[in-house]
# Entry
Amino acid sequence: MSADVWLVVGLGNPGPEYAGHRHNVGHMVIDVLAERMGSRFKSHKTGRADVVEGRLGSPGDPGPRVVLVRPKSYMNTSGGPVSAVANFYGVDADHVIAVHDELDIDFSTLRLKKGGGDNGHNGLRSMRSSLGTGDFYRVRVGIGRPSGRQDVADFVLSNYSTNERKELPIQLVDAADAIEVLITDGLEKAQQKFNS
# Structure
């Protein structure tokens, strides 16, 4: 296994009709990282994901190799593409970071952890099944729960509110920063800095 390569997986659904949905915040975060790396997503050789390869960090200290992964499948089957890319690069689960929306965390809040259950999240469930373990890192980007009687599925598959869209860029940058700290300085430092 290659201990110097990190896979950062942005969970979401493919296609422009889903792009602004809360469920696609994982895609949004790794778009920020791709911009920092100065690269665009390209179709991976497996044909099952779009990827960006590069390094995060300053020119004088470029840091470890990072592969940003955006599965081409829908959320509930994203584990297959993630597993295929992980196998291609020889990356074990302990160097995989899943970036995803989290209902049980307030909007504009982040939590980082390693391992744990899927808490009803179909993308995490699919990754756990395909990787054969849940022992990967998670960057949980808070979206909060719907107010009133709105169905949870309708809520996650809807766009952010007008007020949320004003704050969303800050949350995306914070999540991208958290991933960089996690990769370069470890989970404990990243949690101390970003777990709010």
Summary: The chain is about 35% helix and 20% strand. The longest strand covers residues 49-55. Helices lie at 25-37, 79-89, 122-131, 152-156, 162-185, 187-194. The mean pLDDT is 92.
